[in-house]
């Protein structure tokens, strides 16, 4: 005999020494063990078909085959951390097909083998602790990452609800919570809940078939089903969290249990996967929907056991859901031919999971679906459907539906046959339906259940008498107790004594009331607002001077109406017709989308490049979603002239033929993957950009390579590398030949190019998948489930210093070229700015418009244009020199708008650009009664400034031609303030000292006399320095409080009692110059600024402008302080 150990050779030897015996002895012992184990469920063997007995016990036998013990006889085992552990108080098990077994086998083993089932649950807990993440499909001590979702949570919460984890609740919960709320880091072998980053924020797992995790299955490849499985597991975990007192966690998980709503598309009335942008993807036919693992959206739509009442409401109520379920099971035909429906309409192949809109009992996702009738008040239909499904099990070599998945399908049969089925995982709730036999005796473990037998009776049951009329259990006194509901708890089931089903040939009223089925584990709460946006297509292709219309799409899920604005931002190259729009969506708690068209126009003269546009969606409180898109400026005529094959068509239309046999690529599927006709795309993982020519459906869309010469347009001549985008038909595994690149200097380069077969599973020769769908068209109503697509060849490098002129395709007529991808860098987007000097010249005078372009080293012309109602007319142009150019214009009394455009010398290197806003040149005309051109009549402080001028206190700046400006809002410097005060004082005689009173005012200072007078009069003392000198700081602006001090001292510091309460909120009696400022107020010289609340501020340290200074002096004179 051979002995195995997962620990070491010594363990295998110890196992051999302890257990090895002769073959016959081992066989006899195994027979006895199996007889004992299978005998725990006894069904009648008389008056029944022997085949039915063989089928039942074969299924029961298979239900016990896994998981398997992993401990050696010394109780050591190899853990999931690679270390050796000892299972002191339990037997360690391994080999768990959790995605499958959590639905049926776990519950059956709990009923028949609770001690072993407890050890299995503890084993999964230990695996989660050692790996750091819950397993999905463990093979020995290794995570295979087979299947998706979060099955470990459902498995363990079921075990917890059954009491199998007593004493281990918190350690189990810690593993479950960590797994539910996090994602494995890249060093882990586990994929875990890879969809969590988006799911936790937005409520769904994104469907991204182009992204990959660790080997095995990956949730992002099955975003639709993963979302439903996460939501189910989260809801189950909420029940455990609540019971253990983790109330905040419970509320959070319960809210996530409603995330099935995030997948419901009201336009198709079905669940659909969503991509990273937040929008639904794939076919709108639920049977053809993408993103559902080993099933269709139709089959997965019942995987909402945590809230079936909510699902029924979502589907339109009880009656609508009854019809939906009837259609799913082909119920009307099933009544006439149950076995025929099961074998011909439900099951189309052992592993045929996709393209169906009916029940598939060959696989796990919808195994529980027959019991949904119990929530609809029609438990008799459960009996009909289960009976039909059981006909798929036989005693022959193909007698199990699909893959048994370590006992899952067999356990389904056993549970269905005894009439008790776990209808809501994680809850220990057992749905009741008609047993297959008149009697079933289940031996129970009295240490676990307090009793050693469960008797199930269905006297007279047959194919005709299959409808339950009444169910009873046996009370302690032996009396029959009616069961009005369609389910029992685990405790009620195991303590039922005798569970009796009264059956008959017609449906009855049993368990048809509104309270007959279990309620929801979670209830719909406050959702909040989830908004996403995109531009479709995300990459547009437009020729220079042309335009295209894209759709700005918004999808929102909220409790109430949500809306706001959408801002679309283009560039100087790509303009949008409407920059801002209003949006409003009433989603009713499920994702609802809206869209509106936006025209994108590319300015003339743009040769090539990819240019961004952005959108920002706001809801009134702020931006709630952002998205970006791009426009690729490209030419397509150089390709379309060579097109001679139609390889892309529409599902069921038969309007294409890629391979000569009538098969073709599907247009919508390619577009969903980023290859859309009339749009642009990027070769994944590269900088290579391609434009797909827009063609009419049914028209040629690719060129069969027959040596055609494709002249390369200017748009691509700067490319440094390129790839052919296409595929080969009947490639083995690829096809191709030599491509010739011809350059503008007449030289050539020949290089081999290969494109993979369009339906290959492994692209070869350095090819990169551009877009590969899971199906192909064949001209019939149903697409063929064969994955076919397009690839980019390994890049061809253009030699340094060469410029492309043409591309000669190979002589390979089975190679289809749809487009060519280039790495042309987008031309520089220059920014043009402009200024005018002087800002307001006199009418008739010359003003200079100076244009600057960034970056300053671009080559081209700057063009000055005059803008009027008649359009734009060129005025002058000049080459960019030193980063800009200047233009002289004559100002007129009438305002004239100008703009400056940049025209590149080489449009492949730099794009055209224009100033963002026009600049206006307007000549100033001075009125006779206006002393200054910049202080027109009616302006602020016009009277006060005119008083300064009329009294000779201010002359302003001479502009020539008899005009002057005052510059009213310019802060006044301290030296100029001295000059004003000196003039107001009547320009008294001053004896100028040889040495200045201030160290920073030299005798040759233009205002030396005036500043010296201030010092001699005691009006200003300046700032004392540490060396005994003083500074005046002549060029600093004078502050408003210092201005008050100057005027107060100039008035000979009259007696003044400062008020104890400040008239200004920004000054107190302790503030510097408080007395001087309040003196101004008392004399009516200053009022400050009065706020809406009636209070005033003075802003004491703010600089005073020249217009306010004029007002101070004017009021100073009006108060009688000027002679």
From TrEMBL:
InterPro entries: 6-hairpin_glycosidase_sf, GH92_a_mannosidase_put, Glyco_hydro_92, PNGase, SLH_dom. PANTHER family: PEPTIDE N-GLYCANASE PNGASE -RELATED (PTHR12143), SECRETED PROTEIN (PTHR12143:SF39). GO terms for biological process: carbohydrate metabolic process; glycoprotein catabolic process. SUPFAM superfamilies: Six-hairpin glycosidases. It comes from Litorihabitans aurantiacus. This is SLH domain-containing protein. NCBIfam families: aman2_put. GO terms for cellular component: cytosol. It holds the Pfam family Glyco_hydro_92. The lineage of its organism: Bacteria, Bacillati, Actinomycetota, Actinomycetes, Micrococcales. One of its GO terms (molecular function) is peptide-N4-(N-acetyl-beta-glucosaminyl)asparagine amidase activity. Residues 928-993, 994-1061, 1062-1123 form the SLH domain.
